[in-house]
Amino acid sequence: MLREDRRLRRELIWVIVLKLVVLAVLWRVFIAPKRVQVDSQRMVEVMVLPDTSVRHSGEKDAR
Hints:
The chain has 63 residues and is mainly α.
């Protein structure tokens, strides 16, 4: 390997490591603290019962 090749490889590795560290910090600060509470009964209602407020494509305009 040429000297320039080794230097380029080392610089690329440092850039990738730095990006991974920044991504990990951003995830830790913004994503990890957010916890979503899921109500299983509400999820069943949403998944099983149809939403009557949504018009279906075959319906006529109600005006």
